[in-house]
Amino acid sequence: MAASTIRVTLKRSGIGQPKDQKITLLGLGLKRVHKTVELENTPSIRGMIKKVIHLVEVDEG
Fold first, then answer.
1. Contact predicate 11/52, CB 8 Å
2. What CATH number has the domain bearing residue 40?
3. For residues 44 and 50, what is the distance between their CA atoms, to the nearest angstrom?
4. What gap in Å lies between CA 59 and CA 21, rounded to an integer?
5. Cα distances (angstroms) measured from residue 50 to each of 1, 2, 34, 56
6. What is the pTM of this model?
7. Which of 21, 37, 43, 52 could form a disulfide with 17 if both were Cys (CB 3.0 to 4.6 A apart)?
8. Number of domains comprising the chain
9. Strands (E), 1-61
């Protein structure tokens, strides 16, 4: 059985955000606005997304 994945798209820039949120965006692989990455649906990734949920759009599928 394959692990489920989620697609995360950066919708707002990290400029002006706290440093820990900028580092979290880089950890998710999001460097540019409108870039989309597909990540494994794990608790650690979910926690990272929760930290920057106001900057990203999540598509579970």
1. no
2. 3.30.1390.20
3. 10
4. 20
5. 26, 24, 18, 9
6. 0.90
7. 21
8. 1
9. 5-10, 36-40, 56-60
